[in-house]
Amino acid sequence: MTGQTQKNQTIWLDEDYPDGVRIIDQRVLPFTYSEITIDSVESMAESILTMAVRGAGCIGVSAGFGMYLAALEARSLTPAKAEEHLNASADKLLATRPTATNLSWAVAMQLKALSGIEDENQRIQKAREIAVGISDDDVSSCRRIGEIGVKLIRDLHTEYGRKINILTHCNAGWLAFVKHGSATAPIYAAQKAGIPIHVVVGESRPRNQGALTAWELNGAGVEHTYLVDSAVGHIIQNGEVDIVFVGADRVSMNGDVANKIGTYLRALAAREGDVPFYVNFPSSTLDPYSKNGISDIEIEERPEKEVSHVSSVVEGRNVAARVLPPGSPARNPAFDVTPHQMITGLITERGLCDANPMALAKMFPDYVARAS
């Protein structure tokens, strides 16, 4: 379905589509805006796996709604069979994207809430309530991240007295969450506050997800420039970046951050250029059971074709053009880990803190208690 009025959120319940969840199909962006209905756990898992929905926050919210769909599918089953279906659905969702913490967090929240509920209507209502709550929390967390992060931009503007150049990576905008985004939340807050900004958008090969950020910023009227990944070091070296905001897919309790492949290289360049490097994420992305990101975080390897081919639109048709000689192999690690020592600060809805174990333990004592 195309041509409808564009929404400014990624996933939602719609009264016109009962027993289903509506999403923006991000596989066809930025060339085509399309909404689709997800009406089964199977289709939700497929949507997460194929990146129709993507980004840590959005994956978590989608998994929450996936468990709501599982409760709908289990409504005619006996209590024992319903529990069996919920557990199988959870396993199906968990198998889609191993790196993003938000997915397992949302699934675990649903399983805990639904445990022991035998009445099918109560089970469905509780699953819907939890899914909507996860979505609402995502929105409020990202809004708060923007309120905290914009202070850093305002301070730089006061110090320099000019437009502030912000570098970001991949897409940690509202498309990666429900609204606002994490890395982009301070950007939108700065625009609303009238602070002059310019955003440098990295392309983020191999899936070119920076184009999604460009699509977002273009629609919001935010001044920006799209840049190939290999040019980032050059512009930092030449003083064309004042601050870096990136998102995260999993954060360990020592402050190490797993994010889209290439984040580590941006952190290296930022450290060499003495540019502040901030990681923005809702607390649902923090993994209380991961003590060291480099050793504990599983890095997803995605299909080789994402590297060997480039997707585009030619005369209105979606095409995948080969850029690698036939017979040449490729690797496609989807994420890398940035050590906490290279990060200026972590911005969550709870506040701004240093990227180290003591600071995180102080800000998240409940997470420490959960893992003990």
Overview of the molecule:
This protein is α/β, with parallel strands linked by helices. It folds into two domains: 127 residues, Up-down Bundle (Four Helix Bundle (Hemerythrin (Met), subunit A)), CATH 1.20.120; 227 residues, 3-Layer(aba) Sandwich (Rossmann fold). It has 13 helices and 15 strands. The chain has a seven-stranded mixed β-sheet with strand order 6-5-4-7-10-14-15, sandwiched between helices. Strands 1-2-3 form a three-stranded antiparallel β-sheet, with helices on one face. Helix 2 runs antiparallel to helix 3. The radius of gyration is 20 Å and the shape is globular. The termini are far apart.
Please outline the helices and strands.
Blueprint: E1 11-12, E2 21-24, E3 35-38, H1 41-49, H2 56-73, H3 79-94, H4 101-114, H5 120-160, E4 164-168, H6 185-193, E5 197-202, H7 210-220, E6 224-227, H8 232-237, E7 243-246, E8 250-251, E9 257-260, H9 263-272, E10 277-280, H10 293-296, H11 305-308, E11 309-314, E12 317-322, E13 335-338, E14 345-348, E15 351-353, H12 357-363, H13 365-371
Parallel strand pairs: 4-5, 4-7, 5-6, 7-10, 10-14
Antiparallel strand pairs: 1-2, 2-3, 8-9, 9-13, 11-12, 14-15
Helix pairs in contact: 1-2, 2-3, 2-4, 2-5, 3-4, 4-5, 5-6, 12-13
